[in-house]
Amino acid sequence: MRRVVRQSKFRHVFGQAVKNDQCYDDIRVSRVTWDSSFCAVNPRFVAIIIEASGGGAFLVLPLHKTGRIDKSYPTVCGHTGPVLDIDWCPHNDQVIASGSEDCTVMVWQIPENGLTLSLTEPVVILEGHSKRVGIVAWHPTARNVLLSAGCDNAIIIWNVGTGEALINMDDMHADMIYNVSWNRNGSLICTASKDKKVRVIDPRKQEIVAEKEKAHEGARPMRAIFLADGNVFTTGFSRMSERQLALWNPKNMQEPIALHEMDTSNGVLLPFYDPDTSVIYLCGKGDSSIRYFEITDESPYVHYLNTFSSKEPQRGMGYMPKRGLDVNKCEIARFFKLHERKCEPIIMTVPRKSDLFQDDLYPDTAGPEAALEAEEWFEGKNADPILISLKHGYIPGKNRDLKVVKKNILDSKPAADKKCDLMGAPKKTTDPARVQSEAKLDEILKEIKSIKDTICNQDERISKLEQQMAKIAA
Fold this sequence. Notes:
Blueprint: E1 14-17, E2 24-25, E3 39-41, E4 45-50, E5 56-62, E6 67-68, E7 76-79, E8 83-88, E9 95-100, E10 104-109, E11 124-127, E12 133-138, E13 145-150, E14 155-159, E15 164-169, E16 177-182, E17 189-193, E18 198-202, E19 207-212, E20 223-226, E21 232-237, E22 243-248, E23 258-261, E24 269-274, E25 279-284, E26 289-295, E27 302-309, E28 316-319, E29 331-338, E30 342-349, E31 365-366, H1 374-378, E32 387-388, H2 432-473
Parallel strand pairs: 2-6
Antiparallel strand pairs: 1-30, 2-30, 3-4, 4-5, 5-7, 8-9, 9-10, 10-11, 12-13, 13-14, 14-15, 16-17, 17-18, 18-19, 20-21, 21-22, 22-23, 24-25, 25-26, 26-27, 28-29, 29-30, 31-32
């Protein structure tokens, strides 16, 4: 007898939004027109891109700091243009990268217990893009390797430990890059672009390994991500503006393994993938639902599981890494849904009667330890993620501080050297003119810092006065 219903342990996954007092309230989520997720989460912090006058800023909140967030709560506000994308380092829960309209990428070290003062000084500024930087993505297994992609259609891969751009791919994309995804061991990347092509690229050889023209025929933005088995999953639009999802084998991109039409909404579908369970969650920008699918080896390969629906549309979405979940409650995913004025966690659970650890739901997952150093990866080595067991829950360890050691201070722009001056290479000569110009630079940098601090303080003062006025008016 043929089975009528496909067996799957994820068929009954259900989503539930947390109670109001466990949300993060009164947050002015960014209104910038950019199709990134606006939110990044790890087992310690949730980071949210917010509206900011005179530059770009994002909030970093410890996970337990729920409830109403005061207007004067400190922010990370070093960019001079709106922040477009943020990404937590997978190997250090206190390090986050941000890309901005000001054409720079900044890497920040967040204090262990969160911010007490606004942060204006990044650990390092990475300058190399000529237009706004809309995508930042850390390497999954190599320490301090960061990818950025900008509207100059260039992809740059940085060694954050030295502040250098070691790979610059500026001639592979003729049009805007919508997204970039690393594969499981970080040896390849896949990209979706406005020219309707999906490309699989070997970044160290700087060559295109596979590409598919018109992966989705519609004009609206696509997304492409790598799956654990090396296949590529894409979301996009048909010529009739129907939303589609597709599965591709990079060894043969002529025809998709699977192609499904979904609906006619116009929000870009952001895919979030769990390599341990092979479940993909699709969150449409402007939708009020999260659909989830299981990827398997048997036809039709992409199996619809269920939909979590709510009333409010989502402005963005954060996705918690597996090690941040509560294994005692059989939680297999946690999303942080951005509304216009708040962030609402949504918990996905597999119902189980037993209170014991469910090892079929929690195979060993990628831990916070890097498998390679940056130099090893740039030399050509590959390594899979170092896995950890979640049997007794994940206990965050002590993170080491991000140290940036410049090769030679004078080779790069002075603004990027503020933090690195102490650790830079020894000076070769003591030319008085050079010493004088360095002293002048120091003076200018100090002045810039004091002006930035003043601006942050004035912002806080203004919001306090506004609150006082509101109280009086009420």
